[in-house]
């Protein structure tokens, strides 16, 4: 089993280290990851300057690009053989609901899927990683059987990536694994007005309060209830139900 591991928190991130430790118990791991944090870069691709992979060890490369760049470069140029799976993460922070639209972690898995490779994104839904880092470490042992299960499925769901969120709990506190749908998040006060050193008004996106809504089978509810959340995602954003009602709203001009 050959794994490509990447992330959006950068090659030095502890979550990537945890993911690699878990994957190495099952197969061969190549790491191609951004040289710095690329959180919330979504699925962006670097077109206007070249990418320079720097070898950091056996089968380890850092790239001055986005998570999507890393997956593309790894599969098309750096790896001798295509990976059997792309694993992305473990992100420092949850990727639930609309987060998946901003997330570089999830987008790396999307790029794997776009290249025809089964892909899984992992995120640790802990708010304060410094406080929770021991829990993340403990979950490596829990990740191994989960990874073993996902990678030995007779048919990995076609055209689908799996978005896994891990609850910020000790391994023995986790109640199980739940298959979920995306919830919705509600931000308030997420833009902070400030002054720059010259007294001019600036705005900083971040902070504020996040609350979540969603059905009982949503990702955030699973995390709240102490479960690992696994959400199957596909890249086709077409609203199929609306197509079926097209005669009510669309008349060809
Ligand atoms: Mn991140």
Give a verbal description of the structure:
The chain has 253 residues and is of the alpha/beta class. Helix content is 28%, strand content 28%. Helix 2 runs parallel beside helix 4. The mean pLDDT is 94.
The number of strands is: 13
Helices and strands, in order, run as: EHEEEHEHHEHHEEEEEEHEH
Using the coordinates shown, work out and report the CATH topology: Stationary-phase Survival Protein Sure Homolog, Chain: A
Portion in beta strands: 25-35%
CATH class: Alpha Beta
Strands of the largest sheet, in order across it? Answer: 3-4-2-1-5-6-7-13-8
Overall outline: globular
Low-confidence stretches: none
Helix content: 25-40%
Overall mean pLDDT score?
94
Determine Rg (CA atoms, Å): 19 Å
CATH architecture verdict: 3-Layer(aba) Sandwich
User: What compounds sit in this structure?
Assistant: manganese (II) ion
Kindly name the structural category.
Answer: alpha/beta
Q: What's the helix count?
A: 8
Q: Main sheet? A: 9 strands, mixed
N→C terminal distance:
53 Å
Tally of domains: 1
Relevant CATH superfamily: Survival protein SurE-like phosphatase/nucleotidase
Concise structural overview:
The protein has 253 residues and is α/β, with parallel strands linked by helices. It is built from 8 helices and 13 strands.
Task: Summarize the helices and strands and which ones pair or pack.
Elements lengths: L1 E5 L7 H11 L3 E7 L18 E5 L2 E4 L3 H12 L6 E8 L6 H4 L1 H11 L4 E6 L4 H10 L1 H12 L9 E6 L9 E4 L4 E5 L2 E5 L5 E5 L3 E5 L5 H6 L2 E7 L6 H5 L9
Parallel strand pairs: 1-2, 1-5, 2-4, 5-6, 6-7, 8-13
Antiparallel strand pairs: 3-4, 7-13, 9-12, 10-11
The structure holds manganese (II) ion (MN).
The site of manganese (II) ion (MN) has 6 residues, from strand 5.
